[in-house]
Each structure stands twice: as structure tokens, then as C-alpha cells.
């Protein structure tokens, strides 16, 4: 179980978005996937924390780009075609990080 959480976490960050892009947007999946990958940049807010990385800290609600306010902003991005995939990717990122927090209970 100790390795399952990180494997699931990184699969949700990298593999699931690739599969989703391929499944739902087969003709432009690479462009969609690159935008999903770009949403990993919201993790730059970890640089504001001390320590930068703490495996026992839940990023949701702690880092500024991982808050409910940020999620609201990502939700607004869904309404504009040019930012829609960024919004989907950011919300998926928050769901992935949330799952990681919830799974910590079982360790
Ligand atoms: Zn994150």
C-alpha cells in the first residue's frame, strides 16, 4: 500500500489525462494533452511554502493555487473555449491532489 498512493497519484497526473485526451478528443489529443500537462504549473505555488515539499502535507487548502478560490477561477475558465482545457486540467489536478489526501488516511 505504501507505493500505491504515489503510483496512483502520478498516474492521475500524467496517464489519465493522456487517456482522457485520446478518448474524448482523438483528433486533437496531443494539443489537449499538452494543455493538461501545462496545468502542472499550478504546483509552482509549492515554492512559496517551507518546506517546499512535505509528503505528509495536503496541498488542498494549503497552497494558494490549490484553494477553493482558485478552484472557482478554474471553473470560470470552463466557460471560454480558449481556456476550457486549462480549466479542466486544473480542476482534475485538484481532484488528483484531493484523492492523494484522502488516501493518506489508509496509510
Ligand atoms: Zn498539486
Would you kindly provide a written description of the structure presented here, covering whatever features stand out?
- With 107 residues, the chain is mainly alpha-helical.
- The protein has one domain.
- Helix content is 57%, strand content 0%.
- The chain contains four helices and no strands.
- It has helices at residues 4-24, 29-38, 68-77, 84-103.
- α3 runs antiparallel to α4 (84-103).
- The longest helix is centred in the first third of the chain and has 21 residues, at 4-24.
- The radius of gyration is 14 Å and the shape is globular.
- The termini are close together.
- The mean pLDDT is 94.
- Bound molecules: zinc ion.
- The site of zinc ion has 5 residues, from α4.
Features:
globular, binds zinc ion, 4 helices, 57% helix, 0% strand, mainly alpha, 107 residues
> Spans of 5+ residues with little confidence (pLDDT < 50)?
none
- What is the count of DSSP helices, taking H or I runs of 4+ residues? 4
| Helix vs. strand class | mainly alpha
**How much helix is in the residues?**
55-70%
Distance between the termini: 7 Å
Residue fraction in strands: under 5%
| Shape type | globular
SSE pattern, N- to C-terminal: HHHH
* CA-based gyration radius: 14 Å
What molecules are bound to this protein? zinc ion
Count of separate structural domains:
1
Mean pLDDT rating: 94
The tally of strands reads 0
Largest sheet geometry: none
